[in-house]
Amino acid sequence: MAVAAWLLFAMMCSLSLAGMGLCGSLNRPLVKSPSRSRRSDDVDPLTAVVNQLSQEVLQLKTSLAALEASQARLAGSQTMSVSFTVHFSKADVVGLGTDQILVFDVARNNIGNGYNTGTGFFTAPVAGSYVFFLGMQRHGDDESTFIASIVKGTTTIGVAEAGYSPFEHGSMLVTTHLERGDTVCVKASHGTTVYGGMSTVFSGFLLHQN
Q: Of 161, 164, 180, 171, whose CA–CA distance to 134 is shortest?
C-alpha cells in the first residue's frame, strides 16, 4: 500500500508541474516577428516585368537593324548579269557605207536588255569592265576587204578585218571599262557587203561590275 500511495503521489506531482508549465506557456505574451519597412528603392513586381520586356524589345530592335544592314550590304555586292549575242536576219548585208552602224536585228540572247536591235547600240546598264567580240565573214561578191570597228561613244576601241580573199573570216576581241549609260556599237569602216546570218555576229558581256 505504501508503494502504491507513493507512486500515486509522484504521478500527481508530475501532473501538477506539467499543468503549471502549460499555463505559463499560455499566459506568456506572443512575440511578433519584426516586419521590414518598405524602402524607396523597392520595385513593384509588375514594374520589374515591364522593365525586363522593354529591354528585350530594345535588344530585338537592335538585332533587326543589324540584320537589315547586313542584307543591304549583301544585295549591293551582288553582280548583275549582262550579256548579249546578236546577228543579222538577212543572209547578205549589202550597200553598207563608211561609218554606217551595223544594226544586228536578231538577238540570240540579251540578258540585261543592254543591246537594242532597232538602233544597233549596246547601252551599259551598270558600270564595270566589259568584253566585246566581233566576228564576220567577207562576202564572195565583194572585191575589197571588209573592215568594221567596235566603237565606244565616239572612240574606236577595236578593228576587225576580213582579208583579201572571198569568204575569209575576221574577228576582234576587246575589253573596256564602261560607265552606266555608255554606248558601244559596230560601224563599217571599209567595204560594202558582208555575209549575214550567223556568219557575222556581235557579242558582249559584263566581266566585272564596279
A: 171
Ranges in the chain, pLDDT < 70 = 1-43, 73-78
C-alpha 136/C-alpha 82 separation (Å) is 23
- For the record, the C-alpha cell of 88 comes out as 543579222
Per-residue confidence (pLDDT) for residue 106, from 0 to 100: 98
* pLDDT tens for each residue of 20-48: 443 444 455 544 545 555 555 555 788 88
Name the percent of the chain in helix, strand, coil, to the closest 5: 30, 35, 35
DSSP letter at 198 equals: G
For residue 131, how far is the Cα from the chain centroid? Answer: 24
pTM: 0.64
Kindly tell me the sign of the dihedral angle through the C-alpha atoms of 45, 47, 51, 56: positive
Residue spans of alpha helices (H) in 43-168: 45-77
Task: Give first-to-last CA distance, the chain, whole Å.
Answer: 124
Residue type for 64, please? L
Name the one residue in this structure whose C-alpha cell is 507512486. Answer: 7
